[in-house]
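Hi U.,

Before I forget, here's the chain from the pilot set. I'm dumping it here mostly so it's searchable later in email.
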Amino acid sequence: MARTGRPKTPVTLSADERATLERWARRAKSSQVLAMRSKIVLACADGLDNIEIAAALRIHRDTVSKWRRRFVRLRLEGLMDEQRPGRPPSVTLDQVEQVVVTTLEQVPRNATHWSRTSMAARSGLSKSTIGRIWRDFGLKPHRADTFKLSSDPLFVEKVVDVVGLYHNPPERAVVLCVDEKSQIQVLDRSQPVLQMMPGMPERRAHDYVRNGIASLFAAFNIADGTVIGELHRQHRAAEFKKFLITIDKSVPADLDVHLICDNYGTHKTPAIKAWLARHPRFHMHFTPTGSSWINQVERWFGFLTDQMIRRGVHKSVQALESGIRAWIADWNDNPRPFVWKKTAEEILDSLARYCRRISDAGH
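Structure:
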């Protein structure tokens, strides 16, 4: 006789409980932790077993088992974080929900976001209680990240093309991620930098003197991490053409060259197109508009900025250019290629889920 495993505790919901769980699960701006727990309980009530629920929600079956047991034992209260030993809590479930909902769906009258002080005044709870609620639900009103969704009508095709090069580069060819870090400011502090000492960080004057700008053209080899770099004082199609010539001289003549570029105008001028027509081994691949994250050279620019430019002090354009050349030479002595793990399908699925979330949040 086949083993059926330990029987699962059945879950039966009242009408009020189901309505509350559905509200928590469907509200687009609810805490995602609470929303997931609500979905687990609703699925349990629909008669699904733990394995089926875990597969559908992409979580571990032990997680399903935990929240099934917690709900059966404590009902709706059980979906909140477990109470710690000591004095019974003075904050009710309704007060917690009101704080979470207000934080997510409203803003204070005289500010762009909530602080612990303003939320405490609004809710009647203490600032420390507000802090604990926000921490438990992963809410950080003081923080804001940036995002931009591409409006490129060929977004899908370009993602598939570029990511395809990352995962399956063509034979007898080199794939280079190309871009320009333009208008790098040459900054010199108004007073000497005070070096770090025990118990004291490095200190520098808050004001600075601008001594000009420089533009770096870079091509990042996805296979070995080496970089071809070239510095210019201007950032035009003429300079980009010179950089293409440099790439042409640097890459062995028997290899094709696949360039991954953004949609900046200097990459598509008639002069550039004419040069490419005369050099058929070059193949251009354009990233979607507003999607610089897909170009690996942008990550390399991040290393350059963090390690050399942001805290650098330079008295002339020549000094900055010399420093950048030395940094690139040092990088190429020990190059580090990046490992691109996401497939095009995973990227598109993730973007689709995000679009659904923000679309639902707008209603």
